[in-house]
Amino acid sequence: MSLRFRQLQAFHAIIETGTVTGAAEMLGISQPGVSNLLAQLEQQTRVPLFVREKGRLLPTPEADHLFREVDTVVRGLDHVAQAVSDLQNSQIGQLQVVSQHSISFGFLPPLIAQFARDRTGLSISFQSQYSPKVQEWVLSGLFEIGICEAPLLQDGLSAHRFQVACRLAMPQGHRLSACRTITVRDLAQEPIIAMGPDHMTHRQMRSAFQDAGLPWQPQIHTHMFRNVLSFVREGMGVSMLDPFALDFDREGGFESRPFEPAVHMDMAVVTSRHRPLSRIGQAFLDLLLEQITPYTVAGFKSD
């Protein structure tokens, strides 16, 4: 016996609504269409499913038994259909994002929250890591999308490269806060808080001091942007930080100014070349690139 799902669906809808009219409205088909499906089912099963009494359909005991079996199937397929619809509309799935530290604290959580607000079935995996690990994890498939600093150390990554201009951060009320732009010579007597020697901001600041004939002797070295900013708040010196670390900080206690010569951070949003992005991943990537654009240096050309 080959029963068609549409027949079972019509039978299920009649039991659920109590009438052929109600079943037709539920299924979005005509009343004759529902009656025809029911007649086919009764003919194929050779089991009386309804008795007609004063224009109403009353289910037989056999129909009640069949309904209990059919209910699981129909509701299960309805769930599948809804899941397909949600996937088509990027309502469910898994968002997998890993980011270097400065952009991961203040900038990304509100953006992820905005993205997830109308996606009630969304599962989120989010981590903060150093840039080499970000690239490694995206390449290995642990995460779909990564935000990292240059250089790219892994083959097999697709990259949306961008560049941001750093600013000099200083304690609140610092003497240099009266300046609209800070120059390297303004820092001749200032204690400097620097990222590690391998970091691009460290190298650019060192070059700026050397070009100006000034000694480059940072008082504090650290490897976390949030640590740098904490030391600045405590009045232990000034430092060069990117706009994501500065503009999305919630604690305050510091000021920032443009710096000359310009110090830039080269960054990238990376995905794997070997795996297609999920619909969820693509939708978030589009939003991420849109939100990053206002912070990027105009005219930056990647290699």
Kindly report the spatial arrangement of strands forming the biggest sheet. 4-3-5-13-6
Helix-residue proportion: 40-55%
Beta strand count: 13
Shape: rod-shaped
Structural class, judged by helices and strands?
Answer: alpha/beta
CATH topology name of the largest domain, in short, is: D-Maltodextrin-Binding Protein, domain 2
* Cα-to-Cα separation, first versus last residue: 65 Å
Q: Which stretches are low in confidence, meaning pLDDT under 50 for 5 or more residues running? A: none
The total of helices stands at 11
The fraction of residues assigned to DSSP E strands is 15-25%
CATH level-4 homologous superfamily of the largest domain? Periplasmic binding protein-like II
Let me know the average pLDDT: 89
Indicate how many domains the architecture comprises.
3
Main β-sheet description: 5 strands, mixed
Kindly provide the radius of gyration, computed on alpha-carbon positions and rounded to a whole number of angstroms.
Answer: 31 Å
CATH class categorisation of the largest domain = Alpha Beta
At CATH's second level, what is the architecture of the largest domain? 3-Layer(aba) Sandwich
Q: Could you give the order of the helices and strands?
A: HHHEEHEHHEHEEEEEHEHEHEEH
